């Protein structure tokens, strides 16, 4: 399967630069995953499509202010780093720009020495392992010095960093937000629970691998970066009980989807536990747990549009994207949402 099979033309002006004032006021394109039938609604209307007995799975990871700007000790050359994943204690795998200025042994100073980082190794794809030294608590220093790691297609400054967090964000560790969850408000989640829908929490710390371009022609040759996930016993039980009772498993975002699909048995039982996943879902994949998906509109030729196509079919998805472009939906992280469902469900 060729990466060009997942291309669509997107006008630049449809890339959302700012979050809406009301999270749940975004638009919602409802796509029947079997027939390709499309309906245009607003996100608040998700209530109309969820039923008593369903289980809504949300990813409660929290984005850390992972972008740091520093200077190289000695030359004072400017260096930007992005924290990707904590390897152990104060050692992080990072993306460094410009990489050529960050050879092993380089010391980078942040906040006039409040935080220092020493490059100790060069790993996969040129990422750097950096050991940090500081006085105090790392998370507090990071909160003081770091910026939210917004994707490169967002050029506007984010006024409120909480708008790049879901209202249920809890466990710190992500380099990017699980953006499908940004549409939910606490009030909307309460209404969903009152309707008899179970809400299950899982955690997957989102890495940049999710958003990196596919650099091979044949998608089967693409390798996903590993991401850490946690599924608690109580949350796994919610999913399994709903499935057993005939309810649908509705994942909020591709990250929740990849978590439950990674942590389940071949016969669709979600197992409690934690680990690293490199799951790559594309057409031909057989879903074991997920029935329906709430997601945003994704980049052309990305692994995310491939995942959505695995659920609803490439032709249906690309047709829906063309319709979204015609109807001037807002795209990507701060954009509008899709609900992939089965109207017969």
UniProtKB/TrEMBL annotation:
Q: What is this protein called?
A: S-adenosylmethionine:tRNA ribosyltransferase-isomerase
Q: Which residues are in coiled coils?
A: none
Q: What is the lineage of its organism?
A: Bacteria, Bacillati, Bacillota, Clostridia, Lachnospirales
Catalytic activity field? 7-aminomethyl-7-carbaguanosine(34) in tRNA + S-adenosyl-L-methionine = epoxyqueuosine(34) in tRNA + adenine + L-methionine + 2 H(+)
The record's family statement is: Belongs to the QueA family.
Listed InterPro entries: QueA (IPR003699), QueA_dom1 (IPR042118), QueA_dom2 (IPR042119), QueA_sf (IPR036100)
**GO annotation terms (biological process):** tRNA queuosine(34) biosynthetic process
Indicate yes or no for the key word S-adenosyl-L-methionine.
yes
Q: Which GO terms describe its molecular function?
A: S-adenosylmethionine:tRNA ribosyltransferase-isomerase activity
Assembly and oligomerization:
Monomer.
Q: Which GO terms describe its cellular component?
A: cytoplasm
What top-tier enzyme class does this entry carry? transferase
- Top-level taxon of origin: Bacteria
Location in the cell: Cytoplasm
EC numbers listed for it are 2.4.99.17
**What does it do?**
Transfers and isomerizes the ribose moiety from AdoMet to the 7-aminomethyl group of 7-deazaguanine (preQ1-tRNA) to give epoxyqueuosine (oQ-tRNA).
The pathway it acts in is: tRNA modification; tRNA-queuosine biosynthesis
PANTHER family named in the record: S-ADENOSYLMETHIONINE:TRNA RIBOSYLTRANSFERASE-ISOMERASE (PTHR30307:SF0)
Sorted alphabetically, the keyword list is:
Cytoplasm, Glycosyltransferase, Queuosine biosynthesis, S-adenosyl-L-methionine, Transferase
């Amino acid at each position: 399967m060729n990466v060009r099979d997942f291309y669509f033309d997107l006008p630049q002006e449809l890339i959302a630069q700012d979050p809406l004032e009301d999270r749940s006021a975004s638009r919602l394109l409802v796509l029947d995953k079997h027939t390709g039938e499309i309906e245009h609604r607003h996100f608040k209307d998700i209530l109309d499509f969820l039923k008593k007995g369903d289980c809504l799975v949300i990813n409660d990871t929290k984005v850390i202010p992972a972008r740091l700007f520093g200077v190289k000790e000695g030359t004072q050359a400017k260096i930007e780093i992005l924290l990707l994943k904590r390897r152990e204690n104060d050692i992080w795998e990072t993306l460094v720009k410009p990489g050529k200025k960050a050879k092993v042994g380089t010391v980078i100073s942040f906040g006039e020495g409040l935080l220092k980082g020493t490059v100790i190794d060069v790993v996969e794809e040129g990422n750097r392992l950096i050991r940090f030294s500081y006085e105090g608590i790392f998370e507090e220093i990071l909160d003081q010095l770091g910026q939210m790691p917004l994707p490169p297609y967002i050029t506007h400054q984010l006024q409120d960093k909480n708008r790049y967090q879901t209202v249920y964000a809890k466990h710190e560790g992500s380099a990017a937000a699980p953006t499908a969850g940004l549409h939910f408000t606490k009030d909307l989640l309460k209404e969903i629970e009152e309707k008899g829908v179970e809400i299950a929490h899982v955690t997957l710390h989102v890495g940049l691998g999710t958003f990196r371009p596919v650099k091979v022609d044949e998608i089967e040759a693409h390798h996903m970066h590993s991401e850490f996930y946690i599924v608690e016993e109580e949350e796994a039980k919610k999913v399994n009980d709903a499935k057993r009772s005939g309810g649908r498993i509705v994942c909020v975002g591709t990250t929740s989807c990849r978590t439950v699909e990674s942590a389940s048995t071949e016969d669709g039982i979600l197992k409690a536990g934690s680990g690293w996943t490199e799951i790559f879902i594309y057409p031909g994949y057989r879903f074991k747990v997920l029935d329906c998906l709430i997601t945003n509109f994704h980049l052309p030729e990305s692994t995310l549009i491939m995942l959505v196509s695995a659920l609803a079919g490439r032709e249906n998805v690309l047709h829906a994207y063309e319709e979204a472009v015609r109807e001037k939906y807002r795209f990507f992280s701060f954009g509008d949402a899709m609900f992939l469902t089965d109207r017969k469900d």
